[in-house]
Amino acid sequence: MIRGLHACLLAVFLLSASAHASQESDLEKLRHRLASIQRDFDQASESRSEVTDALRDSERAISDSNRNLSQLTHQQRAAERDLERLQQRHAVLNADYKKQQSLLGRLLYQQYIGGIDQDYLKLLLNSKEPNQLARELRYYDYIARERANTLQKLRDGLAELQAATRDTQAKQHEIDALQSAEKKELAKLESEQDKRRQALRKIAQQLKKQQHEIARLRRNEARLSKLVDELGQLSTSSDGTSFKTLKGRLVLPVSGTVSNRFGSRRTESNLPWTGWFVRAAARQPVLAVAAGRVVYADWLRGFGNLLIIDHGQGYMSLYGNNETLYKRLGDTIQTGDIVASVGNSGGNVESGLYFELRYKGSPFNPDTWIKHPRGKSR
């Protein structure tokens, strides 16, 4: 029976290891394919002429810095909680150590005043009634053992107190290092934001002109469609829940107002919208509408910092124009996870979220899928 149990456990372990290796292999293939697609986009002759390329590096860097700052903040908060627990333990150990010191002091004082060692010798030399002698010997033996126990507790307490002191100091050093890293990342972020502002000032008129270029909008849509098609071919994501069952139950991914809807005409070009633009304040959290896996998290011309989640069975959700992408390629996502923050990356004039739902590469209307598609969410 034990041999059978061991065989079963081994089989489970091997299956788990195999599944993990398969996931890593799929993720590596996805990385290589995305790198190839990105190179194709960057090398295209028309892409080099688009002024939004000037924003790409700074907007990527801003997203990376914000994500790093967020991670550093979480690490610092966790470290501060650990430090508080260590300080509390240090205080308890210190109080216990002082208590043991005081007890030992009283025992030694009693021994000194009572002359216990001398009385112990006298008992052995003087002839006394045996029962009385036995009782007194037990009493002195108890005092001796209590003193030895107190000394051992004092030694153990001192060792624990020293260890707690070292742990507390190490945790404080860790927090200091995190704070230093946070300051450097913040300075880097401010520098990148300044670069982006300068780039926007230089190309403001060109951006305004490009908003009316039908050819540019079509190129943007072609890039996105090509990307989604490639991702669909590599898709292996499935969280065990059919995305179809969520129809009418999805929540708008950001608190804001839908200003442009699927199928409506763009005022600047008369081309139809293939998703929603949700007008929202900058830096608001963007939430995943359903569970899945991140299959794209990078800057894409026309959509700025773009994140795509594969929900399985051919369904994907797209979140564009973000200031920050908090999740990375391959991350597993749960419904309601914060995946990004609102921005106006990609050359947009106003801040907001560009949101799409796609099935087998084709965009479809989110209207009947979102709980409260009109007005403000949450």
Structural class: alpha+beta
Shape field = elongated
What is the β-strand count?
Answer: 10
Task: Note the gap between the termini.
Answer: 56 Å
As a percent range, the share of helical residues equals 55-70%
Query: Average pLDDT value?
Result: 77
Q: Which CATH class of the largest domain applies here?
A: Mainly Alpha
Features:
378 residues; alpha+beta; Helix Hairpins; Glucose Permease (Domain IIA); 57% helix; elongated; disordered C terminus
Describe it for me?
It is a single chain. The chain is an alpha+beta fold and 378 residues long. It has two domains: 50-210, Helix Hairpins; 219-378, Glucose Permease (Domain IIA) (Distorted Sandwich), CATH 2.70.70. The protein is 57% helix and 15% strand. It has five helices and ten strands. Strands 1, 2, 3, 4, 5, 6, 7, 8, 9 and 10 form a ten-stranded antiparallel sheet that branches. β9 (352-359) and β10 form a beta hairpin.
SSE arrangement:
Elements lengths: L1 H42 L9 H62 L1 H10 L4 H81 L3 H21 L22 E4 L15 E4 L5 E3 L4 E9 L3 E9 L2 E11 L6 E2 L4 E5 L9 E8 L2 E3 L14
Antiparallel strand pairs: 1-2, 2-9, 3-8, 4-5, 4-7, 5-6, 6-8, 6-9, 9-10
Give me a quick take on this structure.
The protein is an alpha+beta fold and 378 residues long. The chain has helices spanning 2-43, 53-114, 116-125, 130-210, 214-234; strands spanning 257-260, 276-279, 285-287, 292-300, 304-312, 315-325, 332-333, 338-342, 352-359, 362-364.
